[in-house]
Amino acid sequence: METVAIVGVGLIGGSLGLALQKTGFSGRIIGVSSERTIAAARELGAIHEGATLEEAAAAADLIYLAQPISGILATLDCLGALVRPGILVTDAGSTKLQIVRKATETSRVYHFLGGHPMAGKEARGVEAADADLFRDRTYILTPQRSAELDIPAVKVFLAWLGKFGATVVTLSPEEHDQTVAYTSHLPQMASTALAAVLASLPADRLSVAGPGAIDMTRLALSSFDIWRDILGTNRDVVDHALAVYIDKLTEMRHNLQTQRLDKDFEIAAEAATRLRR
Amino acid sequence: METVAIVGVGLIGGSLGLALQKTGFSGRIIGVSSERTIAAARELGAIHEGATLEEAAAAADLIYLAQPISGILATLDCLGALVRPGILVTDAGSTKLQIVRKATETSRVYHFLGGHPMAGKEARGVEAADADLFRDRTYILTPQRSAELDIPAVKVFLAWLGKFGATVVTLSPEEHDQTVAYTSHLPQMASTALAAVLASLPADRLSVAGPGAIDMTRLALSSFDIWRDILGTNRDVVDHALAVYIDKLTEMRHNLQTQRLDKDFEIAAEAATRLRR
Predict the structure, then answer these.
(1) B244, A187: Cβ pair inside 8 Å?
(2) Among B216, B261, B271, whose Cβ lies nearest the Cβ of A219?
(3) Could you give the 3-state DSSP secondary structure of residue A246?
(4) What is the rounded distance in angstroms from the CA atom of residue A62 to the CA atom of residue A64?
């Protein structure tokens, strides 16, 4: 691996550039992003140079797509015509099925491996990039067949993830989207709905809210800019997760009346404890 | 105010004893609790001595009820016969309407003023007591008529709350229970329901959960021991808050399908921001 092209040099893309260099990558790192971002990313040392997608794709033996999901989908539409045959294209999008499908449909020129680093941060943009962003975090890969992991270019990429200190977990694209619908998208919707309900309280009442309400509305601070693509590309699975959540709340409403909530609290506390292991 | 009786010397009761002494109270502080707790509370300096409820009530010119709600209700059943006329009885229960009603129904011998310090901590018990627990925290008082706040014994108590550094907010008992149903009890139910839904995921899937799921399930770690009384004494209001939450989630489910969630996210982010002021 001599030349890496990072398409979308934000928090994740910038962190990839920094992580590669910190762990010994001595090749060239090309960024594809807006002029302003390229300047900031060069300043921070996350990339060596900026280029157009055409230039970067023609030079790279690894292409890392770290744009928003809709940007990744748009890039995949034209990438097949631009890349050298046999290279690895991977991505960092928060949903996987539509991206993997698009990659499969649009090209057989390159190997595509879907990825999702579970390595968020409150701050966004290349300014928040961090060479250790992936360290001790889960990095999900979504091969469609496990044999994909034996492709030489993939093995090289896996070795770099290992050097970053990431813990690789493999799931099918469907399993991935199903899982994050519950562990990420549903918590977001639950928090947004709760904050939207609290929005209707008189202003002076909000002031008595304690740390519980603060915790439960932190995700609600998220901008819809990020969530539009995520929810839009995982709509049916999130819809189902919401239905399951509403059913549970309805059941608990019933148990509240009959004073039999102890079992719900017990099961919930057990799961919350397991989540923290 | 020369003698204070603290009934239930746990986190809140113990902190009251420590806060009084830290801010210059030179009178006697009597604790009413289990033998084990009295020993621990004396060791920590939260109280001077232990006594039975009868002894403590006969000696005190302020009685502070800091038991679980059901304990407070039981104590109020017999307190009228035990106290000196005209003293102040106040409490720290997490719901107020049933407690204030019980106090009004059972005695006209003492003044009763409902209270609710918004000063929780993860840890419980007198071992976690803290002289600064009330500092910079909201302390809700629930007089039934505002004239109650002019009663001399109440004014003395208010002055101590001021010395503790607490911010006093007054609400009617109904307003209090309505408010905490949304700002405290609903967040708890939302967290418990979410964790109960996550409980049904395969174990290895939970491991990919990020910080969002962790935040949203912290409250779900709470023991039902605390919540049984709270939810049991605020059932109808919490039921209504749950219905409002379920309606909002149902509406968001619809907006997910029609791709019009932007408004929900905007309103929610605004409320979450206001909560943090």
Answers:
(1) no
(2) B216
(3) helix
(4) 6
Q: In angstroms, what CA-CA distances link B218 with A151, A194, A221, B182, B271?
A: 42, 15, 18, 17, 21
Task: Count the residues in chain A.
Answer: 277
Contacts of A273 in chain B (CB under 8 A): 221
Pair of tokens at residue A81: 């015509």
CB B4 within 8 A of CB B58: no
pLDDT tens-digit map of B142-195: 999 989 999 999 999 999 999 999 999 999 999 999 999 999 999 999 999 999
Q: Give me the residue label for tokens 């990039």.
A: A129
Say what the pTM is: 0.92
Q: How far apart are CA A7 and CA B126, in angstroms?
A: 56
Q: Give the residue carrying structure tokens 């910190």.
A: A22
Contact B182 A201 (CB under 8 A): yes
Gap from A98 CA to chain B (nearest CA, Å) = 17
Q: B62 pairs with which residues across the strands?
A: B4, B88
Best of B188, B198, B235 to disrupt the A interface by mutation (most A CBs within 10 Å)? B198
List phi, psi (to 5°) of A167: -100, 110
How far apart are the CA of A231 and the nearest CA of chain B, in angstroms? Answer: 7
